[in-house]
Amino acid sequence: MSLSPVRVPTARHALRTGLATVAATAVLGALGGCSAGSAGTASSAPTTPPPSASASASAAHSVVLDEQARGTTVRVTAGTHLLVRLHSTYWSTPAGSNPQVLDAVGGGTTTAGTCPPGRGCGLSSARFTALRPGTAHITARRHSCGEAMPCSPGQERYDVTVTVTR
Question: What is the pLDDT of residue 115?
Fold first, then answer.
């Protein structure tokens, strides 16, 4: 019997709908928050978003990014709030590369969940505000993808390009 991978919405679709992103993040947090899988989703099959996916958001809106946005470009306007939520405590705190473009709001947080030890159950998150036109990257790293389980190539780094327009 062969298993087919579970399909999840692409970052482009989830970010375009806004509310779907919040709902998807809540579902992924509930189902995959304690997962040691590569993307922190309910699926055990790794998911990779299209490398050139993009999304738009208008001023005074919020955009939620998670593992599904890895490798994508997100286009937002100045004033947009971004929340990065990575579903494992093995991730470092997400950090911005250009404080002139993306302002880190407060410090990052790591919230542990309630699951057996060694699964990295919880969230690593950070908030940003898009300040002015330009480009910045939001990155995070992890060295472990489960208890005594090193990450395979491509699972260690989270990188999203954020392009801010007026």
Answer: 76
Whether residue 11 is predicted with pLDDT greater than 60 in this model: the reply is: no
* Distances, alpha carbon 43 to alpha carbons 23, 54, 74, in Å: 17, 23, 24
CB-based burial, 70-102: b 16+ in 10 Å, e otherwise = bbbbbbbbebbbbbbbbbbbbbbbbbbeeeebb
Q: Do the Cβ atoms of 1 and 27 come closer than 8 Å?
A: no
* pLDDT of amino acid 60: 57
pTM of the model: 0.65
**Which residue in this structure is represented by tokens 């050139």?**
52
* 91-107 average pLDDT score: 95
Helices (DSSP H) in the chain: which residue ranges?
A: 11-17, 19-32
- 77 - beta bridge partners? 165
Q: Which two structure tokens, joined as six digits, stand for 38? A: 């590569």
